[in-house]
């Protein structure tokens, strides 16, 4: 099997990581493209002593890190550009902490693998993840709409949201109910399942809501490949079922981290 064939299944998830790291589909995809170009131009430099997925992310990390060395420009949060907002907040959060959080909680890498990817010791990863969650949670607070038709899952999500210090505006089980709740009490974040109780679509519900106002959205699905197609638009934040609580926490923190309407905790 060629290297390209080995890497192909992992590209949708690398795009997910790139978008979560940068807060932008365009920027995330740009780094993924640069990663692939680097591999094609110098295949002999691709890590050969690790799993292909690890080698792919390691190459991505090297390119992303080199692009951010000595970059101390952090535009103010008044900008509406997600990357500008992120940079302002990054000035107050250690970048390694965020990378450790995403790699372990969202991408599912082990502590040992994450340590390899960002070039730190195993012992540092848990501390970095804890620091990232704490710092991001202190910076952001939001009112959250949950679109989920499974009662147990909805309750679990509600608990996670409240544990993070956010408020739940409502739980919708159908497209129409979701849109109605959003119009009645505008949320600052939407957590949306795809398949809803009356066979309506969470994707359609989100489209209806976004047609009225902008709000960060996190999709939840058992079939992430249906959304990670490479076609635009793709969701910036996507959680795969069954999910870990830490994954939901990481996605919420990251989504709000790039959103200008979330406010610092007081």
UniProtKB/TrEMBL annotation:
Domain Response regulatory: from-to ranges: 143-256
PROSITE patterns linked: RESPONSE_REGULATORY
Superkingdom as given in the UniProt entry: Bacteria
Keywords: Phosphoprotein
List of residues that carry 4-aspartylphosphate: 193
Transmembrane domains' residue ranges: none
SUPFAM superfamilies cross-referenced by the UniProt entry: CheY-like
Keyword Phosphoprotein assigned: yes
The protein's name: Response regulator
Source organism per UniProt: Sphingomonas qomolangmaensis
Species classification: Bacteria, Pseudomonadati, Pseudomonadota, Alphaproteobacteria, Sphingomonadales
